[in-house]
Specification:
By secondary structure, the protein is of the alpha/beta class. It contains 13 helices and five strands. Helix 7 packs across helix 9. The two termini are 48 Å apart. InterPro entries: RNaseH-like_sf (IPR012337), ZnF_BED_domain_contain (IPR052035).
Length: 348
């Protein structure tokens, strides 16, 4: 009782003071928030802060995780955000702090009620929503369901897993475990497909082995395996983009528009070599992505222009590029010149 009621609260207050001191020295603090459910199906809302320290290193803090038994309406989410801003003294001069959320309708409404001048939706979550749609293409969803059912069989059966391990060794297949894809996360479907294809020889040898009696197994045709390979090939760059966007060490907002352009104009370009199913998947993703971030484009273009990797904005037309440069110059002109220079520590 003493540990939970005295020691832990004391540690919390001590750490809170340190975090508040660090946040108070930051020029700008942005917030991110997300709702989630525990295994006990209890609802929570977590709020994190992000800022650059004096050495321009990205610093993240989990400010709070609160139970949210009430309905997750935009009004309630905005209320919790405002309470956190007050508790942590994060009020900005020109309004609420910048906010990053997912694309859920309640979060979009919360952003408006929060009255922040800068509300950006997570590009990784945007990709997740778009990919969820094209994974519902009939042939693809049917194939994924069959592979998921087969993988589930290996996870349920100790004997099947043991035989599979033996077969992988005999056939010189990487001794990995099969992965079950989660329907709500497209990247787990990619992981499941990729691992299934990697181990398919051992999987099929196991299913046909005399040690197992699998009566309801339906074999995969060459067309099925070809489709699995095509889908994996299409999803790989999307998985790479998602992994890159989930970095906690560097800001990723400047990547949004260059990556969107790269996806729309290279990865998703329709080809005569694409099967009808792959063309349908690409078209579905194109339709979803093309109307994303229209309102935030000016701000996102400026972010890309300030990133040394994209400062020439090669993905934009000359007219738009010069307009962005003019906006950057105008904003730079408003920065007070009498501000003391900050010394940066250069790491070797």
């Amino acid at each position: 009782m003493q540990f939970s009621e005295i020691i832990i609260p004391k540690m919390y207050e001590e750490m809170k003071l340190l975090v508040q001191k660090d946040l108070s020295s930051a020029e700008t603090v942005a917030l991110t928030t997300d709702g989630w459910s525990s295994r006990a199906t209890e609802s929570y809302m977590t709020i994190t802060s992000v800022h650059n320290n004096v050495d321009w290193e990205l610093v993240n803090y989990v400010l709070q995780t609160r139970a949210l038994p009430e309905s997750h309406t935009g009004e309630h989410v905005a209320e919790v955000l405002n309470e956190a801003v007050t508790e942590w003294n994060l009020q900005a001069i020109d309004g609420a702090p910048p906010l990053v959320t997912d694309n859920a309708s309640n979060m979009l409404k919360a952003g408006k009620l929060f009255e922040t001048k800068l509300h950006v939706t997570c590009f990784a979550h945007t990709l997740n929503l778009a990919c969820q749609k094209f994974l519902k293409v009939k042939r693809v969803s049917h194939l994924l369901a069959r592979i998921r059912q087969l993988v589930s069989y290996f996870h349920r059966s100790n004997m099947a897993s043991a035989v599979l391990k033996t077969k992988t060794h005999l056939l010189s297949v990487p001794e990995h475990k099969l992965i079950i894809g989660v329907c709500t996360r497209w990247n787990s479907s990619y992981d499941m497909l990729q691992r299934f294809l990697e181990m398919q020889v051992a999987v099929f040898a196991t299913i046909r082995s005399k040690e197992l009696k699998v009566k309801d197994y339906k074999s995969f045709s060459d067309e099925d395996l070809t489709l699995a390979e095509e889908v994996t090939h299409l999803l790989k760059p999307l998985k790479d983009v998602t992994v890159g966007l989930c970095s906690e060490k560097i800001p990723t907002v400047s990547l949004t528009m260059p990556l969107k352009h790269q996806l729309m104009n290279r990865v998703l370009v329709l080809s005569d070599d694409d099967s009808p199913t792959i063309q349908e998947m690409k078209q579905s993703l194109i339709e979803d992505l093309k109307n994303r971030y229209l309102e935030q484009k000016p701000m996102l273009y400026i972010c890309s222009a300030l990133d040394p990797r994209f400062k020439m904005l090669p993905f934009l037309s000359e007219e738009i590029r010069f307009d962005v440069f003019n906006q950057v110059a105008a904003k730079a002109a408003t920065i007070p010149t009498n501000s003391p220079a900050k010394k940066l520590k250069i790491k070797k």
